[in-house]
């Protein structure tokens, strides 16, 4: 009919005095996150009627009994103790009901400690400590101390989030994927009663990462490629462009690839603290082989479709195009390389770049070209007929 409660407590366990004892008294746990937590007890009767006398005493380690007098209250329905230290408490209730209630108070705070164990250019090692708070209650019959079972679990985290291998399994985790930005490492320790302790420290990153992008990564020769550095904490650079040329500039000039083929690009960086990292471009730069594709018909009628006789080509050093009428009169000539070749738009169907229109019919062409891959285009495959329709 009488009960003992602990307002504000976080968990409740029960005593186990000995294997032969069936007496089970409550142990009230108060989480001490603030460091100044105190306990509280309230004795009351479930009948809710009548007035009683309450006498409170605390356990004494000297006398091995509840002999430290706290207070007495008479003719009240409920009696409480507030701001009390941890230990054992007993209240005797008298009146129309005579009974005794015993309870134990634990002010609980697990221990946590987080710090840097070691760091190099390649890894970060964390050092943590996690201990459960200990509490003993006493067997009222024998005075012997009994330890209240308690354990802990822990969890490492960081803000911003970074890699921490096995953050809840290793109290001293070590990561070989260290953060590239400054982070706050935090260790949270939780005991069996749900009480929490946290410890943290600020970490200043020293790590480096080589990273870059290219544009474009494919095209005909000569292919001009721009490189954009996106590395972290680099002070020295070594670019290897894959064609035996290098650069030590942070932002190198666009690099031109003349010879068709595939090129693997690598960047190696070093920081002021001599941390080194490298990146090789996963996708190779492709310079396309030389080629010619000669059409056999064109229609210079001004409709915007197939208006010019133009050779589709790739990776050519130079190109020569001659077009002749059936009577052997040369009606068109082009010879060019470099920018002139890239700007070439083909024969528009006018005789020798004049305003005179070539008559519809069959024309004979001779094409000569030389590729950046040293392929010569001057055989019979580059001689033939083209049909002009209007």
Radius of gyration: 44 Å
Q: Indicate the structural class.
A: mainly beta
Number of helices: 1
Q: Describe the main β-sheet briefly.
A: 6 strands, mixed
What is the CATH C level class of the largest domain, in words? Mainly Beta
Helix content: under 10%
Distance between the termini: 113 Å
Shape: rod-shaped
Sheet with the most strands: spatial strand order:
2-3-9-8-5-6
- The fold-level CATH name of the largest domain is Immunoglobulin-like
Fraction of residues in β-strands? over 45%
The CATH architecture of the largest domain can be named as Sandwich
- Mean pLDDT metric: 95
**How many extended strands?**
35
The total domain count is 4
Instruction: Please mark out the parts with pLDDT under 50 across 5 or more consecutive residues, or reply none.
Output: none
Task: Tell me about this structure.
The protein folds into four domains: 2-108, Immunoglobulin-like (Sandwich), CATH 2.60.40; 111-135 and 149-203, Immunoglobulin-like; 212-288, Immunoglobulins (Immunoglobulin-like, Sandwich); 291-388, Immunoglobulin-like (Sandwich). It starts with a strand and ends with a strand. With 390 residues, the chain is an all-beta fold. The protein has a six-stranded mixed beta sheet, with no helix packed on it. Strands 29, 31, 32, 33, 34 and 35 form a six-stranded mixed beta sheet that branches. The chain has one helix at 338-343, and strands spanning 2-5, 11-14, 26-31, 39-45, 52-60, 65-76, 79-84, 87-94, 99-108, 111-119, 124-131, 136-138, 145-147, 152-159, 174-175, 183-191, 196-203, 212-215, 218-220, 223-229, 236-240, 246-247, 255-257, 261-263, 266-270, 276-280, 285-288, 291-293, 297-298, 312-314, 316-324, 330-337, 361-371, 376-377, 383-388. A hairpin with a 4-residue loop joins β8 (87-94) and β9 (99-108). The radius of gyration is 44 Å and the shape is rod-shaped.
């Amino acid at each position: 009919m009488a009960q003992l409660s602990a307002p504000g407590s976080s968990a409740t366990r029960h005593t186990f005095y000995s294997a032969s004892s069936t007496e089970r008294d409550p142990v009230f746990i108060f989480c001490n996150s603030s460091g100044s937590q105190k306990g509280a007890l309230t004795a009351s009767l479930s009948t809710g009627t009548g007035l009683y006398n309450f006498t409170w005493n605390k356990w004494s380690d000297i006398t091995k009994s509840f002999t430290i007098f706290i207070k007495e209250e008479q003719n009240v329905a409920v009696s409480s103790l507030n701001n009390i230290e941890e230990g054992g408490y007993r209240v005797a209730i008298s009146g129309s009901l005579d009974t005794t209630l015993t309870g134990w108070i634990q002010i609980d705070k697990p221990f946590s400690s987080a710090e840097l164990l070691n760091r190099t250019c390649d890894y970060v090692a964390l050092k943590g400590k996690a201990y459960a708070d200990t509490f003993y209650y006493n067997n009222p019959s024998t005075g012997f101390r009994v330890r209240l079972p308690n354990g802990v679990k822990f969890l490492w985290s960081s803000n911003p989030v970074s890699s921490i291998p096995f953050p809840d399994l290793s109290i001293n985790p070590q990561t070989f994927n260290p953060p590239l930005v400054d982070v706050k490492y935090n260790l949270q320790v939780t005991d069996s009663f749900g009480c929490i302790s946290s410890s943290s420290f600020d970490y200043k990153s020293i790590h480096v990462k080589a990273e870059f992008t290219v544009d474009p990564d494919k095209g005909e020769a000569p292919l001009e490629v721009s490189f954009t550095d996106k590395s972290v904490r680099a002070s020295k650079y070594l670019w290897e462009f894959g064609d035996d040329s290098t650069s030590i500039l942070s932002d190198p000039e666009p690099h031109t690839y003349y010879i068709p083929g595939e090129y693997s690009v690598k960047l190696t960086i070093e920081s002021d603290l001599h941390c080194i990292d490298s990146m090789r471009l996963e996708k190779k730069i492709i310079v396309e082989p030389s080629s010619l594709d000669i059409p056999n018909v064109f229609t210079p009628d001004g409709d915007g479709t197939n208006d010019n006789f133009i050779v589709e080509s790739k990776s050519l050093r130079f190109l020569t195009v001659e077009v002749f009428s059936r009577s052997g009169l040369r009606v068109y000539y082009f010879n060019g390389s470099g920018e002139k070749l890239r700007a070439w738009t083909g024969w528009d169907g006018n005789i020798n770049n004049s305003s005179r229109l070539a008559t519809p019919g069959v024309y004979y062409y001779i094409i000569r070209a030389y590729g950046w891959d040293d392929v010569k285009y001057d055989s019979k495959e580059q001689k033939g007929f083209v049909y002009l329709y209007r």
